[in-house]
Every structure is written in structure tokens, then in C-alpha cells.
Amino acid sequence: MLDASRRWRHEGKSIGLVPTMGALHAGHLSLVDAARRENDVVVASAFVNPIQFGPGEDFERYPRDPDHDAALFARAEVDAVYRPSTQAMYPSGASTRVHVSGVSEPLEGEARPGHFEGVATVVTKLFAAVEPDRAYFGQKDAQQAAVVKRLVSDLDLPVEIRIVPTVREPDGLALSSRNVYLTPDERRGAVALSSGLRAAAEAYAAGERRHNVLRAALLSRLDAEPLAQVEYAEIVDPETFLAPGRLAVLAVRFGKTRLIDNHDLGKAFPG
Ligand code: PAF
Fold first, then answer.
1. What's the 3-state SS for the chain?
2. What is the pLDDT of residues 200-243, one digit of tens each?
3. Which ligand 1 atom minimizes the distance to the CA of 119?
4. Which terminus, N or C, of the chain has the lesser number of Cβ atoms within 10 Å?
5. In the annotation, is 115 catalytic?
């Protein structure tokens, strides 16, 4: 991978990296489109990173369909797909982890101990393997994006981080590789996340600024949804992920499936 990247760089070409865990959907393709627009060469990585899954999480059952992914990457005109093996990424004896403190600690950090350390470690390794000029992450994983920005800034990594808007189903559900786990009833109920975000954004647009009132609006639809178990619903600062702030963030379980979503209340909710 590094040889190919260095050849492109030698030819004066800029390189955009789209890190993924495969199981592609239109959200990933919007990252590829953004990378395409801004770079001469687009590299996508597809690696289900074991160290970002906690014990009891869905590493084993995480959807894997390399042929389907390859077809979608080819159709999107990705120039190279980097698919390292687990052994290549974490050979026996590898013992270094990248830990970003602060922003990685609340919310997702609390709910998924070790998750962001796994993400920061693999992202650092992907940057080392590809040496991209720019790397593309989805706004859907807002806290991950903030952790990666912090990492890049703190370690002076020579890569520009681009955040691409969330792609949603027509009813508002944010696209996620985990949506395939939802039963039909859970899928119907899952619209309560985006409806809550919309309700909070509408309240904010109408001038509401009280944290507890905005939070109640965020929770309004979820409280009425019997299949939803809210893990957190907060309105936080988009850099620290601490309240108070303007970014509404949600993590909600539907049966065995955990969904996250977020929206900047200063912006109209799409659709
Ligand atoms: O967002 C993801 O798909 C993953 O967390 C990432 C950034 C590819 C790291 O494994």
C-alpha cells in the first residue's frame, strides 16, 4: 500500500483516504464522492478492526460481504482498496495503543470502554500505511470524528480531516451498517432517533435554549417508543462532548442493536 501511495505522490498526485469496516452503504459512498472531488487518487480501506470492539459486542457478527464491497468500490471508481489482514495489522507482539484522552471519555467512551483507543490506533496505522493528504469520516460518528481530529492535531499528523454529512433513509434514519440487524418492528421504531433530533432542532430554531427543555424535546419520541432503550441523550459541545452545547447526541438500543445519531441544533434538520 505504502509503495503504491508513494508512487502516486511521486507523480504529484494527491491522495484521499476513506477508512471503512466494509459493509458498505450510501453513507460510505458519499465519503468516497467527497474524496473523489478533492483528490487525484482515492484509497478506501476495508478492515473490521477487532480492537475497537469490546467483549460482548458484535465483532463476530459484524456484517462482512467483501464481494459486494468490492463491486461498490469499483462502481464508485475507488483507485485502490486496502484490505489488510488482522495478522498484518496486529502481529503477535504488537503492544502499542494510541489513547486520546478528554474527548474520548464521555458518552461513547463511557459506554464502550477501549473503543476509541482501538479506533485511534487503527486510524494511526491506516494513515501510516496510506500517507493520505486528506481522510474522510462521517458526521454520523461525531465523537469518533472529534477524537480523530484531536489525534491528528496532537500528533502533528500531516493529514487533513474532512467530515461528511450523515446520509439518511427517506424517513430520517441515519444509514449504518448495523441497521441490517433491526427486526421490522425495531426498524419502524428506530425513526424515533431522527424524530427526536428534528424536534430538538425545531425547538432550538424557535428560540428555546434551556438545556432541559431541549433534552426533553430530544427524548420526546423515544419515550413514546416501547422498543427503544435510551443509553444516552445529551446536548453537548462538539469538541469536548460535554454538556452544555449545541450538538444533540443519542445512543439507543433496540433489542441487541445499538444505534447512534446526532445533529447540530443550530442547523435545520434535513428532509
Ligand atoms: O467508522 C468506522 O467505520 C471505523 O470506526 C473506522 C474509522 C474505519 C476505524 O476502524
1. CHHHHHHHHHCCCCEEEEEECCCCCHHHHHHHHHHHHHCCEEEEEECCCHHHCCCCCCCCCCCCCHHHHHHHHHHCCCCEEECCCHHHHCCCCCCCCCCCCCCCCCCHHHHCCCHHHHHHHHHHHHHHHHCCCEEEEEHHHHHHHHHHHHHHHHCCCCCEEEEECCCECCCCCECCHHHHHCCHHHHHHCHHHHHHHHHHHHHHHCCCCCHHHHHHHHHHHHHCCCCEEEEEEEEECCCCCCCCCCEEEEEEEECCEEEEEEEECCCCCCC
2. 999 999 999 999 999 999 999 999 999 999 999 999 999 999 99
3. 9
4. C
5. no
